[in-house]
Each structure stands twice: as structure tokens, then as C-alpha cells.
């Protein structure tokens, strides 16, 4: 047997072995389902839910009091900030904090300030 024919046989043997292994792997993947991974008592909404304490942390940040009717929030500025947002503080509901839609920091007009119209 020549070198070339033995090499062709070796390549053919490797190819047929790879085809035999592939169905075995896929059959094992197809048998796994949610019922085998999670308990049936786990609610569907709790499966792979991202749990974050961001809302509790931002609630601990004190309300920023501003001596003006407009607050300017840039999220700390620089590369870690967000676009500048101008927040109107003199709304119909007086003395209620207004929240920045990007970072969640709350701003409120100082007590006794009536605006500068």
C-alpha cells in the first residue's frame, strides 16, 4: 500500500468517526429540558431572573435640594456620566422630589424657595 492511499484511508476513517460521535452528542443535548434542570415547584418567572439591589441602593441616596426651579444632572460627568438632563422642579405637586430618568437621583426645590419667574 502506498503512502498516498494509506493517507486517504486515514482521512476517511477520521471523517466517519466524527459522524458517529456527532449524533451521540446531540441526543444528549436534546434530552435536557427545563424540567430536568429546574424543580417543578419553581415559578416560571423566577427561572433565570436577574436579581439586583439597585433600587434599594438608589433609595438610600439622600434627596438633593436645589435653590432653583431647575436641576441639572449629568450623572457625575466624564466618561461615567450620562447625557445632561434638565429637571423641572416647580411642578403642580409642590415639594415633591423629581427623579433623573438616567441615574435615579432625586432632586427637590429647597423649602421656602418660590421660583424666579
TrEMBL record:
Residue ranges of every copy of the Zinc finger CHCC-type domain listed in the record: 69-107
Gene3D superfamilies, per this entry?
q5lls5 like domains
Q: Which GO terms describe its biological process?
A: mitochondrial electron transport, NADH to ubiquinone
Query: Sorted alphabetically, which Pfam families does this protein's record hold?
Result: zf-CHCC
Write the protein's name.
Zinc finger CHCC-type domain-containing protein
Gene Ontology, cellular component aspect: mitochondrion
Q: Which InterPro entries match?
A: Znf_CHCC
